[in-house]
Write a structure and sequence with these properties.
- The protein is an alpha+beta fold.
- Among the domains are: 145 residues, Neutral Protease Domain 2 (Neutral Protease, domain 2); 90 residues, Serine Threonine Protein Phosphatase 5, Tetratricopeptide repeat (Alpha Horseshoe), CATH 1.25.40.
- It is 36% helix and 22% strand.
- It is built from 19 helices and 23 strands.
- Strand 8 and strand 9 form a beta hairpin.
- Helix 5 packs across helix 7.
- Bound molecules: zinc ion (ZN).
- The site of zinc ion (ZN) has 4 residues, from helix 5.
């Protein structure tokens, strides 16, 4: 494994407490531990190769307890192995079967605490007995009142939250295989990013195995009242009762998607591909946990118009899971490639017009993001290669890695032609399969394997795209036939034309999003549009988010109770955050007060990822 200390290394002087498990006496000492790639892990001395978890999920106490056992490979000089932990209660540690004294550092806000375990060059196994905190940031425990059924637990390890439920070297540059034994209440079914059961067992103990090496951020667990339905020979869907059939209907094209993806960039390497439909509190659209994508229920709309999210998570089986960003600063290598690939899968199945419509909408989002970020201290985060030193990698996440990354790759495709670019991508996924890659390594591979002469390279302005802020002027322009039709309708409405619901009956979610975003908000009355469509009564979370943004901008008081209900029922950060931002930015102070009141009442029901982002928005708002 390559290990690069430049750029991202920094050293912290931390006060440590010597935790002697024999006497439990506390003795403070000063040690310097480098934090590299957002981890205390000393993988340059010790390679953790495989993990076995033996865990019990206690829903009453909202904790996971048990042990993690690592098979390690130390180098000749290794004296200790250092794992990342965050708010883990370490009960005892054994090394090759013998209990040893360990040290745990002081908890740092972003990085947690290093766990130092003495070993030597011959050590094979390190077993850590531990318990998670009820506030473990990766885990969300939902009561039966919150699910409307049985209790549920899910994890979200990306970016650096795996350490809040498993002691590990929590960095994307390191891969390991794992097995697990999970016990849970007898009416629930646990699922992991591994081989999964399809039905509940009698003794409530389940075994899992992930044979392909993965980085820690892809460790995943969910436990709920799940049922399973097969969708194809190697794919299916898990959901809670009552939601299974509608999910199966929504994802019916999954076998076709897998086929399209394999046709483009080579065989799917993870065995099965299943989806588990999460509760609404899930903070993301989807999480590409290998073999088992975690997906928000907000994409189950009844008309398959948001299944591109599944194409996205499936594409991660190549870009991200197979070829992984070496550091979180290289995050665009995970996401930019995935959005490009997602788009290609959608084009294969639903045609070019549909894919163009989605790309055009995304381009609008990207432009807005860039304009907004360029006016703030976040300007530097409009670079593809992010500077995340001493920051939570999650703070650098925006449309940039996804959309600026995609448009950069699209520019390369348009420059060299699709055939050559596809052959290049196929070889890239093969060459770096089950490895990690830095931005500079990608650039070298690109120069060596794609371009034929400097005349092709120079106009691309590659360094400008990767290392400079903003959106380069050579960004490809997308034309969408479908959205051009909408443009003329929007112009007619501006000139006084009265739209009817009847003429929009064939619209997809994307048509409505474009319509709401682009309608002239000065000349069109929000009351009039509301009386035609009654959007607030709709169930489609994507359209509702767009609609409520306009309601807030227009000071549309009538929408307030609906906005509150929406924010109480949806935990996906993509929807929650923009509404809190809009309310905070509104010059009418009542919206800021309203936002704070709502958050006080319902904020605790959000996953930590959403909760922390909204907290920042409310704290930074100048109310
Ligand atoms: Zn993604």
């Amino acid at each position: 494994m390559k290990f690069n200390l430049t750029n991202i290394a920094f050293y912290l002087s931390i006060g440590f407490f010597l935790s002697c498990n024999a006497t439990q006496n506390n003795k403070q000492e000063e040690i310097q531990i480098p934090i590299v790639n957002h981890s205390f892990g000393n993988s340059h001395e010790v390679l953790p190769q495989s993990l076995h978890l033996d865990l019990n999920a206690d829903f009453e106490k909202q904790i996971i307890q048990g042990f993690a056992e690592w098979d390690i490979k130390p180098n000749e000089l290794a004296k200790q192995v250092i794992f990342d932990t965050k708010e883990l209660k370490i009960e005892k540690v054994s090394v090759d079967g013998e209990e040893v004294e360990f040290k745990k550092g002081k908890e740092l806000e972003i990085f947690g605490a290093p766990l130092l375990i003495p070993i030597d060059k011959n050590t094979k196994k390190v077993r850590i007995y531990y318990e998670t905190s009820p506030h473990a940031e990766a885990l969300q425990w939902l009561s039966k009142e919150q699910t409307g059924g049985k209790p549920l637990l899910f994890s979200q390890s990306q970016a650096i939250l795996a350490r809040t439920w498993v002691p590990c070297m929590d960095m994307p540059s390191l891969r390991f295989t794992y097995t697990a034994k999970i016990s849970c209440p007898n009416d629930l079914l646990p699922l992991m990013s591994a081989t999964n059961p399809k039905t509940k067992s009698l003794n409530s103990v389940y075994e899992f195995e992930m044979q392909q090496p993965i980085p820690s951020y892809l460790l995943a667990l969910t436990i709920g009242d799940y049922e399973f339905k097969e969708l194809g020979t190697n794919c299916g869907v898990y959901a809670t009762p009552g939601k299974l059939q509608e999910a199966a209907n929504e994802f019916v094209d999954l076998p076709k998607m897998i086929q399209a993806a394999e046709k483009l960039y080579g065989p799917y390497q993870w065995g099965r591909y299943d989806i588990v439909v999460m509760p609404a509190a899930f903070p993301f659209g989807g999480m590409e946990n290998p073999r088992l994508t975690f997906a928000t229920p907000t994409i189950v709309t009844g008309d398959k118009s948001l299944v591109s999210l599944i194409a996205h998570e499936l594409a991660h089986s190549w870009s991200g899971n197979l070829v992984t960003n070496h550091t979180w600063s290289d995050f665009w290598l995970n996401e930019g490639f995935t959005v490009y690939f997602e788009d290609r899968i959608m084009e294969e199945i639903y045609g070019r017009d549909y894919a163009d419509m989605m790309a055009k909408l995304s381009f609008g989002d990207l432009q807005n993001t860039v304009v907004k970020m360029m006016q703030t201290p976040k300007e530097n985060d409009t670079k593809l290669f992010l500077n995340l030193e001493n920051r939570n990698p999650d703070d650098g996440v925006s449309d940039i890695a996804y959309e600026k990354g995609r448009f950069f790759l699209l520019l390369i495709e348009k420059t060299v032609g699709r055939e050559r670019f596809d052959a290049f991508l196929k070889s890239y996924f093969q060459k770096y399969a089950f490895k990690t890659i830095t931005t500079e390594e990608f650039k070298s591979y690109l120069y060596d394997n794609l371009f034929q002469n400097p005349a092709e390279v120079v106009p691309l302005e590659i360094n400008n795209w990767i290392y400079e802020t903003g959106l380069p002027s050579n960004c490809p322009i997308i034309l969408s036939v479908e959205l051009l039709k909408l443009d003329s309708l929007i112009t007619k409405i501006k000139e006084g034309y009265k739209i009817t619901k009847e003429e929009t009956k064939d619209w997809t979610t994307h048509h409505y999003l474009y319509f709401i975003r682009n309608i002239n908000k000065q000349s069109t009355s929000i009351q009039e549009i509301d009386s035609v469509f009654g959007f607030s009564q709709w169930k489609n979370a994507e359209i509702l988010c767009e609609w409520y943004k306009w309601c807030i901008e227009a000071n549309y008081e009538k929408s307030k109770p609906y906005i509150k209900t929406y924010l109480a029922n949806v935990g996906r950060r993509k929807f929650v955050l923009p509404l809190f931002e809009k309310m905070t930015e509104n010059t009418n102070k009542n919206w800021k007060i309203f936002a704070k009141d709502i958050f006080k009442e319902i904020g605790k029901s959000y996953h930590s990822v959403t909760y922390q982002s909204v907290t920042k928005v409310l704290e930074n708002g100048n109310s």
